[in-house]
Amino acid sequence: MDAYELGYSGVVAKGRAILSAAFYVNKTTDDIFFTELTGDRYTPANPPPGWPLPPFTIALVPGGSLPAHFTYLNFGKQTQKGIELGVNGTLNRNVGLFANYSYQATPTANFALSELNLPAKNRFNIGANFVTGRFLGDLNVTYSDSAFWQDVLDDRYHGTTEDYTLVNGGFGVKWANNRLTTSVKMLNLLNQTIQQHVFGDIIKRQVAAELRVNF
């Protein structure tokens, strides 16, 4: 496998803000993939050796057959490109702000793109945090486009996740001369149905309490 990366990144500080920008081009040749050998599948008439169930049960799975053989193969060439932009700064001595955005173009390849995971094209994060006296907190919003995920099995086990917006936040209080900090952290405040990977868990609202002790 041959691979090389071309990229540039830069940071500019201005007043209370730090601006950042980066772009990249990744080119890969003969990457190694675990893939199905097509044209040879297990069917009710040709069950796998030692199949523990009646052969007709194979016809009940989607497509009525099962992959028979997998192997590792070198695929051709692929190119991935993207940019990242960000800003990180302070509104005043108590409030910090940040935002970032990334764009990743659909990869180009001289083989079927179904062999690749296709990440979200557009993603951004924006948020704020504050500390004032005994109190502290944060709030952030994350957005992601849809993404395509494929597993080692055939296309019945591939899928596309929906785009989502995730809102998280937290609030805390310091006690005992800052020796103790109690806080509540909340994930997915809007209680949206979010799945970040086609085989991942469904994320709903989550609330956690935390106690920190400083010695």
Fold and architecture overview:
This protein is 0% helix and 56% strand. It is built from no helices and 16 strands. The protein has strands spanning 2-14, 17-29, 32-36, 41-42, 66-67, 70-74, 77-90, 95-104, 108-109, 122-132, 135-144, 147-149, 159-161, 164-175, 180-187, 206-213. Strands 1, 2, 7, 8, 9, 10, 11, 14, 15 and 16 form a ten-stranded antiparallel β-sheet that branches. The protein has a two-stranded antiparallel sheet with strand order 3-6. β10 and β11 (135-144) form a beta hairpin.
List key phrases describing it.
single chain, flat, 215 residues, ten-stranded antiparallel sheet, mainly beta
Concise synopsis of the structure shown:
By secondary structure, the protein is mostly beta strands. It is 0% helix and 56% strand. It has no helices and 16 strands.
End-to-end distance: 51 Å
- N-to-C SSE string, H for helix and E for strand: EEEEEEEEEEEEEEEE
Largest sheet: 10 strands, antiparallel
Number of helices: 0
Beta-strand segment tally: 16
Helix content: under 10%
Structural class: mainly beta
Low-confidence runs: none
Strand-residue fraction?
A: over 45%
Quote the average pLDDT. 86
